[in-house]
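Quick question, first post here. What does this chain look like in 3D?
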Amino acid sequence: MVAATRASERRERLGSPPEGRHRGTAESDSFSSSFAALGKLAYEGARVSVNVVDLRSGLTLLSIDDRVVLPTASVGKILLLIEVSARITTRDVAGYGILDKTPGDAIGRAGLWQQLQAPALPVADLATLVGATSDNLATNVLLRQIGLDAVRARTESLGLSRTALLDLARDQRGPDDAPQLSVGSTAELTWLFSALSRGQVVDHVTSHRVLGWLAQNSDLSMVASAFGLDPLSHRTADHGIQLVNKTGADVGVRSEVGLLSGPRTSAAYAITVQFADDGLPARLAVLEAMRVVGYDLLEHVH
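> Answer (accepted):
Ran it through. Tokens below.
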């Protein structure tokens, strides 16, 4: 009870919005298509959570089970980037230096460093790889330097109680490993990105640095597929649209959190879908529903 009260006080100090609701709502008519598309997924057995907030008015535009904790795959790496950025800001020795990759850090799947000849890279470059390609090897090397306990402590200091980075990136998860890389609620993830946009995660410098790393994300396959941006070059506004996002993908999980700014307004959004990934049609149906959310977001801000 005391821990919950302290978490609430931290969120209030950072200007967090009210906690999300379990019921589904489309507060804006412009998100009725999103509500219908995601509702169809839920009707077919998927677990769906989404939260969309207008950053200028603070109004919730779309909310479906946004307090439910679901697996978020690589989305939780945001928490590692926040801790790395905070240490660079305070000139902590752990935030500097050049780090070697070791056989114990090696993992396949996402990332570029495993394909590069460089045996070592600076901390800031590793954070850039995580932001740009969700690099698993860079993630594990940073976690070896920073420590998972420090990331958890930073997460708790932000008042997040339903969002966490649970483990290293692994090719296979055994019975003694955490069942997921990360978990989160879309209400908390939207709040976190809103706070980053206001420069309130640790401080303005730390927040801005994290957003800079994430602005290089090359994965625009989910919600962001609707925005018409160049996946490899969208750090600046393009036709009035600017995006910062982080995605997570695993078997049966697709998750994305981001900030979308346009000529009319800006919005923070988070969406996670956990589904039976038993065939390509099921996966494509999830991606198409997430794209519908993107179309509604684009219409709202543009």
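The chain has a mean pLDDT of 91.
The chain has one domain: 2-301.
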